[in-house]
Design goal:
Low-confidence stretches of chain A: none
Oligomer: heterodimer
Mean pLDDT of chain B: 86
Mean pLDDT of chain A: 85
Number of helices of chain B: 8
Strand order of the largest sheet of chain B: 1-2
Number of domains of chain A: 1
Distance between the termini of chain B: 22 Å
Radius of gyration of chain A: 17 Å
Radius of gyration of chain B: 18 Å
Shape of chain B: globular
Number of helices of chain A: 9
Strand content of chain B: under 5%
Distance between the termini of chain A: 17 Å
Low-confidence stretches of chain B: none
Largest sheet of chain A: none
């Protein structure tokens, strides 16, 4: 039990995929201007990451490894993710339109989010079992959401403050992210 | 635009990742040293130019609805080639770049150029565009890596630059330093462009 707790805490805080592992930065700057877009993106990432990690785990251990095709990992994984996102979009549009509307345009955007492919590859690198993989992918995505929402809250406040002209926007967003990352650096050493 | 213009725009006016804010993940992650930035930039340039060529050659053949998936397959194939070549010939660099080599496939720059340029232009301009953007990206990565390495480690390309009594500003080598450095450089570039 404590192993699982350790895994979760490590994935959410100590090795936060956005602020420590640098995954998922491109969309992060685009959506962290407003809280509603940020929460939409966070939910979409949690959803897609967990499902993608599960399916790619199965593909790796039941298709690629037995057939000796490990070198095709990148192609196979990205195709799985692209297909998965497409299917999920179509499914949600038909059966849970409220969720589909709240996720908005972020669902197709997630195909190129390095966080999803990154977590899938990390799971294989760490050689997780099925349950560990589920917890790790879910917790990593939750960590992404936590970091994203923290940053959005700060950027919303900063948007109405007096900032030098040339540093507004992306530049300031990155510097703020850096200072929050400094905070997350304090978690290092919590899990040895 | 002439071919030369296509090439030079990627070097300053639309240089990724500073002016064309794409491809941030590898920028932040691998620029702990100038050499790593250089290696990643060259790998990305290779994939960018090759995929631009193929996408441009096939632009009349790929149906509109599946074009993103088709681009991704093309890009992924070249990423696998780069992965295997690096594993064979540049193993230390391969270990350092780690997970970010397969992540070249979702580098927004490559997909972005395929979608915005190569799918609408002939082969020679596409090569120029890819080469320009790729080299601009390489310069940016090497520059950022150089700064972080000089102040965070006291070395440049592995050679000691600062004196023996220099205390490295080691937070620059970690995540916070990456974000703050990139943010400051972006701000500085905005300043320079506004002055011109």
């Amino acid at each position: 039990m404590s192993d699982y707790l350790l895994l979760i805490v490590s994935a959410v805080f100590v090795n936060n995929i956005l602020l420590v592992r640098y995954l998922g930065n491109c969309p992060f700057l685009g959506v962290s201007n407003r809280m509603d877009t940020a929460t939409g993106m966070a939910m979409a990432v949690v959803f897609v990451t967990t499902m993608a990690a599960t399916i790619t785990w199965v593909v790796q251990y039941y298709v690629l490894n037995p057939l000796g095709l490990e070198y095709l990992q990148t192609i196979a994984f990205i195709l799985v993710i692209a297909a998965l996102v497409q299917l999920v979009e179509m499914f949600l549009q038909k059966s849970v339109p409220a969720l589909y509307r709240s996720l908005g345009i972020f669902l197709p955007l997630i195909t190129t989010n390095c966080a999803v492919l990154g977590v899938a590859v990390l799971v294989i690198q760490n050689e997780f079992g099925f349950l560990d993989m589920l917890l790790f992918s879910f917790a990593s995505a939750v960590g992404y959401g936590v970091a994203l929402i923290l940053l959005t809250g700060i950027r919303e406040r900063l948007a109405i403050s007096a900032i030098p002209v040339h540093f507004r926007g992306t530049s300031l967003g990155l510097i703020s992210a850096g200072l929050i990352a400094l905070g997350f650096l304090g978690f290092v050493g919590m899990v040895h | 635009m002439s071919v030369a213009k296509e090439f030079t725009k990627g070097l300053w006016k639309e240089v990724p990742p500073f002016r064309l804010v794409l491809g941030l993940c590898p920028t932040l992650a691998v620029t702990t040293a100038a050499e790593n930035g250089l290696g990643m930039g060259m790998a990305t340039t290779f994939v960018l130019v090759c995929s631009n060529v193929i996408v441009s050659l096939l632009r009349k053949v790929i149906p509109g609805k599946v074009r993103i998936a088709a681009f991704i397959v093309v890009i992924a194939s070249f990423v696998v080639i780069v992965e295997l070549m690096m594993q064979a010939y540049f193993y230390p660099l391969y270990k350092i770049l780690g997970i970010f080599i397969p992540l070249i496939v979702v580098n927004c720059i490559i997909l972005g150029r395929a979608e915005a340029f190569a799918s609408k232009n002939t082969v020679i301009p596409s090569i120029a565009d890819g080469l320009g953007m790729g080299l601009g990206f390489t310069f940016s990565l090497t520059f950022l890596g150089g700064i972080r390495e000089i102040f965070g480690n006291g070395t440049l390309f592995g050679h000691a630059i600062m004196g023996a009594s220099f205390q490295p500003f080691s937070v620059l080598l970690k995540a916070p330093g990456a974000f703050v450095c990139l943010g400051l450089i972006l701000g500085a570039m905005n300043l320079i462009s506004a002055r011109k």
